[in-house]
Amino acid sequence: MIEILTTGLPNTVQDLGRPGHLALGVSHGGAMDRQALAIANLMLGNDPSAAGIEVALHPFRLRVHIDTAVAITGADCAVSVGDRPCPPWWAMAIRAGETLVLEAPRIGARSYIAFAGGLDLPPVMGSRATDVKGSFGGLAGRGLSRGDRLALNPAQCGLPAGGFGSALEERRGAADGAACAIELRVLPAAEFDAFTPEAQAAFTGNEWSITNDANRMGYRLSGETLSLLSPLELLSHGIVPGTVQVPPSGQPIIQLADANTCGGYPKIATVIEADLWRLAQAPVGARLRFLPVSIEASTEALRANRQRRRDFIAARNLIVGKQRAP
Amino acid sequence: MVAGTPHISLAGSGALLLDGAQGAFNDATQELVWAVADAALNLEGVREAVPGMNNLLVVFDPLATDAQSLGEQLKSLWASTEASAIAGTHHTIPVSYGGARGEDLAGWAAHCGMSVDETVRRHAAATYTVAAIGAMPGFPYLSGLDPRLAWARRSTPRLKVAEGAVIIGGAQAGIMPMTAPSGWHIIGHTDVTLFRAEAELPVLLRPGDTIRFAIAGIEA
């Protein structure tokens, strides 16, 4: 059992989401930074899609009521387990009665907490992810509140004393969006050619910033106004996370994990799947830049991601040995 | 008449959008969209097929297939698949028109240049088809609205439209399965539940289902 001590409603239970129901209008959802949650779970010997907590509003505090182990990944923030500081991307034991504290991030926006065994919640439509829009999944379909108690599945994870950490090459020295713009690789989308040459040039040539209107559904950006060659009326169509829509205001919106499954605005581009974690870790006010790539490059980036996960599992098994839940 | 070749575009590295629209929404094209959606699920690497309005989003694993060859396969499916109406379920949805939970009723009637009673009578006289489910869980895009009742969406969407709201957006009709933002006009309210996440069949309506609205009351 864990008990939430300090939180905000943007903090939710997430796993790797509920794909397969787009045709019912149900978003994939799940962790905005999927890789961070997957690695946190793998560090503890969990299934990568075990349910953990996505912390989007810091500081965050919880108390554990049993001896267990936690892994904290995602944003670079000061973390303490009991009275012990915990480095970023680290898994370690935590004893009954101790508190886990995550302070405001130095770099990044979202932290992930995985628990040995994962949070014990009933799956809804195949997932424990919280769908706030539909008020289902996670803990009663809502964000976490002070005093919430969540059970853990039984587990043995056999961490080495002091725990262990992981470091992902691509995360090292990643742009923070403040001193340096975050680069997002994009593929052109259906209406790219319907925009003026000036808009096309501004989209990839200029920087954009993330406005306050940014959440798990999507981020509204501000920058140069993007104009169409002529007004366009589209029928509603399916969209995926990463879709960059341009509503009549000319200011783009990037659709994300909890986005509506259908939309009607013209689409100028799509952020490639392998770069969605960069958006998950981009705070309000962050500067962004779009970099056009080929479909081959975007597929290669995805292949590299999957390979990194396999390599990680192999490395973890070397350190900890293969574990099975009892 | 069904359009020949859909326009195919990339929707990121793992999805293709097939757009069969030629101007206004077309029922025959939609029947083809449903049939191609079913068939597409059998193609190697395809994960999901999501019918939109005269279009189809196909989500795939780019490490199991590639956009180029999948696009070709989908194009030939589009050309060879027999469009057929789905024998869907018929639903009667009781609606309380107007009042506090149908605040745009009078404005809608004025826009259509008809009395409130006549506007409501026409809305309830038509048989609607669920063309697609999407945007939010269980939301039906309904075709079959009397063209005289069409009303372009609000320029500024409302941040909250209540669950059960019966709405009009352009030439489309709909029902809100949950409270959410919407730019459509609110003409009435129903107590019918469209989405229950915990149920074995979470959505009430499916593409191909038909709907009649029954007048439970009119409050000007």
Q: Can you give a write-up of this model?
A:
The complex is a heterodimer of chains A (326) and B (220). Helices cover 15% and strands 31% of the residues of chain A. Chain A has 326 residues and is α+β, with helices and mostly antiparallel strands. Chain A folds into 2 domains: 2-170, no CATH class; 182-293, Beta Barrel (Cyclophilin), CATH 2.40.100.10. In chain A, a hairpin with a 3-residue loop joins strand 12 (208-214) and strand 13 (218-222). The model of chain A has no long low-confidence stretch (mean pLDDT 94). Chain B is an alpha+beta fold. Chain B has 2 domains: 7-80, 2-Layer Sandwich (Gyrase A, domain 2); 90-219, Cyclophilin-like (Cyclophilin). Chain B is built from 4 helices and 13 strands. Chain B has a 7-stranded mixed β-sheet. In chain B, strands 1-2-4-3 form a 4-stranded antiparallel β-sheet, covered by helices on one side. A two-stranded antiparallel sheet of chain B has the order 8-11. In chain B, a hairpin with a 3-residue loop joins strand 3 (46-51) and strand 4. In chain B, helix 3 (105-112) packs across helix 4 (116-125). Chain B is elongated and about 55 Å long. Chains A and B meet through strand 14, strand 17, strand 18 and helix 4 of A and strand 1, strand 2, strand 3 and strand 4 of B. Chain B: Keywords: ATP-binding, Hydrolase, Nucleotide-binding. Chain B: Residues 6-205 form the Carboxyltransferase domain. Chain B: This is KipI family sensor histidine kinase inhibitor. Chain B: InterPro entries: CT_C_D (IPR003833), Cyclophilin-like_dom_sf (IPR029000), PxpB (IPR010016).
Mean pLDDT of chain B: 95
Rg for CA atoms of chain B: 19 Å
Strand coverage percent of chain B: 25-35%
Estimate the helix proportion of chain A, in percent.
10-25%
Q: Mean pLDDT of chain A, as a whole number?
A: 94
In whole angstroms, how far apart are the ends of chain B? 41 Å
